[in-house]
Amino acid sequence: MTDYSSDLKPLRRGHAPSVEYGVYFGLIFAISLPGAVLRSLAAATRLDFSGPGPLRRAQTRAREITPAIFDV
């Protein structure tokens, strides 16, 4: 039996992101970058280089937050 009670929206595939999405993504990326750099520096002082770098951390954070703003 199919469950129709969930309120999930289908993913939009094949559409280019809007300019507004790019602006928000860029702002969130720029805001999260200093924190990611500080976190990577803290990991470097412990000689723990196993995690992702600061750019990847900031990009991941922006990819998590931006769709939540647009409720994609």
TrEMBL record:
InterPro entries: PufQ_cyt-su. GO terms for biological process: bacteriochlorophyll biosynthetic process; photosynthesis. Keywords: Bacteriochlorophyll biosynthesis, Chlorophyll biosynthesis, Membrane, Photosynthesis, Transmembrane, Transmembrane helix. The chain crosses the membrane at residues 21-42. It holds the Pfam family PufQ. Belongs to the PufQ family. Required for bacteriochlorophyll biosynthesis. Directly involved in the assembly of both the B875 and B800-850 pigment-protein complexes. This is PufQ cytochrome subunit.
